[in-house]
């Protein structure tokens, strides 16, 4: 499996810084022994310029990866710490090259990877900072796999969240449709009640009219009966 390009570039930048430190020490040795360090000074200037460009490229690539969320925040912070350490040591190299910063012997040994920084005769890279517990002891390929798994878990979580939001959207739409139907039913009932009220008022008026007519007819019948009774009484023989 191919390594992470950013980590590859970082490792190459560390090697360049290591070589620059070794060349500075060799330049200083030539100056002490009366040699001519002009050639190595040209090499150092080119190396320092290249080191500066590499660090700037690492910063740009990290910013791009962080913006596109291809990295976990913890890993982005770890890589930013690596860049900050590189920047600090680059300044130390520049100061040492210009003669403005004289490192003690212990610091020079650490810079060259000697003494406590060696294991089994192989110089440890002094430019590497302590890794986090999550990635300590892992190869670049394993770190990449770990990051890929984390990203996949995040993607699954986002997919699940998107599914929940989609279901809620569908439920909201269905509730809205049902409310529209209920409003239509309420409008129909209101219209029906209004029509029923009109009918009731009309029927009430008719009943009152009938009662009035019935009352008038009853009085007329009574008068007619009285007249008939008067006529009958009048026709009786004395």
UniProtKB/TrEMBL annotation:
Q: Which UniProt keywords apply?
A: Coiled coil, Membrane, Phosphoprotein, Transmembrane, Transmembrane helix, Transport, Ubl conjugation
Give the stretches traversing the membrane: 215-236
Give the bilayer topology: Single-pass type IV membrane protein
What residue ranges carry the coiled-coil annotation?
A: 7-68
* Record-linked InterPro entries: Syntaxin (IPR045242), Syntaxin-8_SNARE (IPR041875), T_SNARE_dom (IPR000727)
Q: Name one GO biological process term.
A: vesicle fusion
Q: Which GO terms describe its cellular component?
A: late endosome; SNARE complex
Q: Name one GO molecular function term.
A: SNARE binding
Domain of life, source organism? Eukaryota
Domain T-SNARE coiled-coil homology, residue spans:
148-210
Q: Where in the cell is it found?
A: Membrane
Family assignment? Belongs to the syntaxin family.
Q: What does this protein do?
A: Vesicle trafficking protein that functions in the early secretory pathway, possibly by mediating retrograde transport from cis-Golgi membranes to the ER.
**Protein name, UniProt field:** Syntaxin-8
Q: What is the lineage of its organism?
A: Eukaryota, Metazoa, Chordata, Craniata, Vertebrata
């Amino acid at each position: 499996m191919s390594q992470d390009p950013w980590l590859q570039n970082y490792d190459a930048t560390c090697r360049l810084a290591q070589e620059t430190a070794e060349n500075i020490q060799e330049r200083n040795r030539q100056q002490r022994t009366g040699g001519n360090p002009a050639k190595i000074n040209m090499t150092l200037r080119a190396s320092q310029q290249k080191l500066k460009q590499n660090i700037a490229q690492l910063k740009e690539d990290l910013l791009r990866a962080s913006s596109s969320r291809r990295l976990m925040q913890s890993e982005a912070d770890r890589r930013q710490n690596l860049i900050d350490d590189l920047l600090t040591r680059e300044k130390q190299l520049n100061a040492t090259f210009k003669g403005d910063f004289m490192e003690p012997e212990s610091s020079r040994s650490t810079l060259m990877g000697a003494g406590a920084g060696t294991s089994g005769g192989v110089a440890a890279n002094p430019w590497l900072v302590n890794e986090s517990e999550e990635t300590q002891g892992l190869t670049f390929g394993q770190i990449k796999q770990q990051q890929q798994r984390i990203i996949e878990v995040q993607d699954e979580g986002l997919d699940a969240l998107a599914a929940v939001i989609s279901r809620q959207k569908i439920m909201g739409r269905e509730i809205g449709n049902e409310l529209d139907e209920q409003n239509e039913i309420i409008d129909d009932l209101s219209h029906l009640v209004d029509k029923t009220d009109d009918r009731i008022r009309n029927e009430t008026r008719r009943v009152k009219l009938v009662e009035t007519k019935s009352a008038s007819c009853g009085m007329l019948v009574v008068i007619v009966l009285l007249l008939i009774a008067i006529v009958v009484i009048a026709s009786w023989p004395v």
